[in-house]
Amino acid sequence: MKMNSLEDLLKEQLQDLYSAEQQIIKALPKMAEAATSSELRRAFEEHLKETEDQKRRLEELFEEFELDSGKKCVGMEGLIKEGQELMKEKGIDANVLDAGLIAAAQKVEHYEIASYGTLRTFAHELGYDDAASVLDEILQEEAKTNEKLTRLAESGINKKAS
Ligand code: FE
Ligand code: FE
Questions:
Q1: What is the pLDDT of residues 34-90, one digit of tens each?
Q2: Which of 92, 72, 90 is nearest to 17 (CA)?
Q3: Are 47 and 28 in contact (CB under 8 A)?
Q4: Which of 33, 55, 103, 145 is the most buried (most CB within 10 A)?
């Protein structure tokens, strides 16, 4: 793929995000299963549904921009690997695991927030207002998920882990 304009960068980064969302869809069920807190498990399950819909909306943008899914997001691969290492810890305290799962999930959400925020601004700059509003809509969902995770951590999970 050529990389000579903001439009090229927008397209390349959309492919990166699509790969990120696909990886998250694979990881979230495992994180939900590992969670001890039922509230945390529910939060992961709800975000899985939301993420599947985000993937669908990205596919619509792929059609608009005539993109294919040939890219792997190595940033997300690394973040997910860190979460997996935590889940493999032998004999980890259940509450510590929950606190760690929230930390891992919030790193994922922050990656997404940075990415969707940047791409929304690129799309807006390029005059793709419909794409910009789709990206902004997803950005708001990621931000809400991040806030929900903060609330769960601060409303008891961190205390139980300490
Ligand atoms: Fe997402
Ligand atoms: Fe997300």
A1: 999 999 999 999 999 999 999 999 999 999 999 988 899 999 999 999 999 999 999
A2: 72
A3: yes
A4: 145
Rounded (5°) CA angle 101-93-22: 20
Whether 56 maps to a domain, the answer reads yes
Question: Tokens 């792997």 label which residue?
Answer: 72
Helices (H), 89-128: 94-125
The enclosing domain of 154 has a CATH number of 1.20.1260.10
Q: Is residue 78, in this structure, part of any structural domain at all?
A: yes
On whether residue 131 sits in a domain, the answer given is yes
The Å distance, Cα 66 to ligand 2 centre, comes to 24
The residue segments making up the domain with residue 66 are 6-161
CB atoms within 5 A of ion ligand 2 belong to 112, 142
Q: Which residues are near ligand 1, the ion (C-beta closer than 5 Å)?
A: 51, 54, 112
